[in-house]
Design brief:
The complex is a heterodimer of chains A (172) and B (167). Chain A is mainly β and 172 residues long. Helix content of chain A is 15%, strand content 51%. In chain A, strands 2, 4, 5, 7, 8, 9, 11 and 12 form an eight-stranded antiparallel beta sheet that branches. In chain A, strands 10-6-13 form a three-stranded antiparallel beta sheet. Chain B is mainly beta and 167 residues long. Chain B has one domain. Chain B is 0% helix and 45% strand. Chain B starts with 13 loop residues before the first strand and ends with a strand. Classes of the chains: A mainly beta (172), B mainly beta (167).
Chain lengths: 172, 167
Amino acid sequence: MKFAQKLLVILIFWCSIISAQPVSISGTASVNMIKPLSITAINSSINFGEIILTGSAFIYNLNPSQGAVFRIEGHPNRNVVISFSSTALSNAQWVSQNGGTVGSLNYTPYVVHTGASSVYDLPQVVTNGGSYQLQNVNQNGILYVWVGGTINIQANQPIGDYTGTFNITVTY
Amino acid sequence: MKAKILFSFFFLFVLTLNLSGQNNEQINVQVQASLKRGISVISQSTVLDFGEIILSNSQQTVTKSPAEGLRFKIISHPEKPVLIDYNFVQLSSNENQNGPIFVTKLVHTGSNSGYVNPIEVQPGTYYTPPNQNGEGVLSVWVGGSLIIDQSITQGDYSGTLVISIAY
């Protein structure tokens, strides 16, 4: 108890010495400004084109080099998470205009990136939810992403023009 | 104590602000695939028989109207043009490889299964099967002329007419 009282007296004495004269202490404030993310479609078409049905089930592939191309721009060297998912295509609109049977097609995207290269060269596979580094190009973080994919065509797949929407999300 | 005692307390702090927070951007694009029906052909009659022909001392031509000849139906993708091609046929028999020549005549009646308003089909030409309940349907009728040279000898002659249909 006595020790505590002594310690308190010493602290008060020390504070009075400090407070008796102006004091200046410098601090550092820093801000880490991060470039906002943007994603732009360079080629917004994922078009499998015309496919002639054979009466047998088969898988049809679209190489990413012939699909959609996106340019992701953000903070240099920072990682972004790229997310996407499968989607269903439907021919309902075509059937409403031409008749026939409504059907659906499952589209599975196949995504790659070529770093900061806008040319389809040495593509690296992009997995859903994976993290990828934006390449530093003149203090801009750049990543080119290419999307192809596959559609599974059933033996009795109804004919028509199938459409659907593919979403891709990038996040810091 | 007149002197002002200034109590200046500056708290040392290092403030680091990270203004990034979470930033996400999304973009949507349309996925398209145009599935076309494969071409199929349904034969409704497969033999074009000219029957018996009595030979004469001069060249003769026997003609059969497409209405009384072969008939088949092309089922394809609606409104997608199909290429129809065919040629003449030289008939042959066991004894004679150089028999009469069959000059083919094709017509189509659109999706009409009756012989109504026939339109001549030229070889190597595209025709558009009209839409019938989501299918392209083209009824094709085959007739033609048999050119029998005076040198043709008697016998049973036959030949195969190949009609190709493609997108």
